[in-house]
Amino acid sequence: MSRKSNFLLFTTSFLGGLAAGLLLSPTKGKQNRAWLSENALELNRWAKIQRRMAKRKSSQELQKLRKNIHQEIQQNIPNLYEATDTIPLSGDNILNE
Predict the structure, then answer these.
(1) Backbone phi, then psi, for 84, in 5-degree steps?
(2) Taking Cα atoms as reference points, which of 45, 15, 64 lies closest to residue 53?
(3) What is the CA angle 42-46-49, rounded to 5?
(4) Residue 87 per-residue DSSP state
(5) Which pTM does this prediction carry?
(6) How many of the other CB atoms lie within 10 Å of CB of 65?
(7) Which positions ≥6 away from 45 have C-beta within 8 Å?
(8) Which of 1, 21, 31, 44 qualifies as a cystine partner to 27, CB 3.0-4.6 A?
(9) Are 22 and 37 in contact (CB under 8 A)?
(10) Which residues contact 62 (CB under 8 A, 6 or more apart)?
């Protein structure tokens, strides 16, 4: 399963459990609504913070990956300008005359 489907499954399970808990709780509906409203705002703030942190972390990881790929390419593929710098390019040597 992908992370997206795992997250969707977790979120759906959480919300289903929350709804079942509210329906089966011994407290009155008004108290449940007040509690739910208060905690929903807090959960929304937490989710926004987590989203920002995930975006920042993924951006940093992407930059590291780009840097590593660039370094590996430079190490494994020779620079043709430097490799051919010492080759004489006169017309006499081309035809072996």
Answers:
(1) -100, 10
(2) 45
(3) 140
(4) S
(5) 0.45
(6) 10
(7) none
(8) 31
(9) no
(10) none
Residue linked to tokens 């409203």: 37
**49 CB-side CA count, 13 A:** 6
Name the token pair of 30.
């008004």
Contact 22, 40 (CB under 8 A): no
| Strand, helix or coil for residue 52 | helix
- Name the residue among 67, 86, 85, 63 with its Cα closest to residue 75: 67
Q: What would the pLDDT profile of 24-66 be if each residue is shown by its tens digit?
A: 777 777 887 787 778 888 888 888 998 999 999 999 999 999 9
What's the CA gap between 73 and 86, in Å, rounded? 23
Helix axes 29-76, 3-24, angle to 10 degrees: 170
> Residue 18 and residue 22: Cα distance in Å, rounded?
6
